[in-house]
């Protein structure tokens, strides 16, 4: 059975995530988070030294859960193109869960953006490596340098995240970019 402290922490994280994801980092105060969670602001500071620390933990938690879901999803999908399609659809679904303000606030906070990009590189490299390796083993992808291609994809994504302003201008631009990027991953320059 969970302790009172664990219950308060879980409620704090749940409400902070709801508010940050809907309104972004800048628009939410610690007072609003405390009120939504039904706890005192002092209780928040028992767990986190600042709003930025809380925001980072929320972003990290959201990211970790998303990667677990994505890994489970692609594990249960056969075929390289189907795995890439599953990644696309999953990414688009995830994109719709958060406000544009949330994405902008994440990317404008240098500390959080850097930590998130590093975490994303590690997890993405693993997923790309698995998909590419599996595709080669099944004969769906030509024999290529798996580590190089996984790293190249990470470099592309990293560069795009660092130059994000046009990509995250609106929900439509995020969707537009994601669809075209995954189309390029699936078919390259010479695909049908």
Q: Which secondary structure elements does this structure contain, and how are they paired or packed?
A:
Elements (H helix, E strand, L loop, with lengths): L3 H20 L6 H8 L3 H7 L3 H25 L4 H16 L4 H9 L1 H28 L8 H17 L8 H17 L5
Helix pairs in contact: 1-2, 1-4, 4-5, 4-7, 5-9, 7-8
What is the CATH third-level topology name? Tetracycline Repressor, domain 2
Name of the CATH homologous superfamily: Tetracycline Repressor, domain 2
Could you state the order of secondary-structure elements as H and E?
HHHHHHHHH
Estimated radius of gyration: 19 Å
CATH architecture, please?
Orthogonal Bundle
Describe the model.
This protein has helices at about 5-25, 30-35, 40-45, 50-75, 80-95, 100-110, 110-135, 145-160, 170-185. By secondary structure, it is an all-alpha fold. It has one domain: Orthogonal Bundle (Tetracycline Repressor, domain 2). The radius of gyration is 19 Å and the shape is elongated.
Summarize the structure.
The protein has 192 residues and is mainly α.
Fill in the keyword field for this structure:
0% strand, Tetracycline Repressor, domain 2, 9 helices
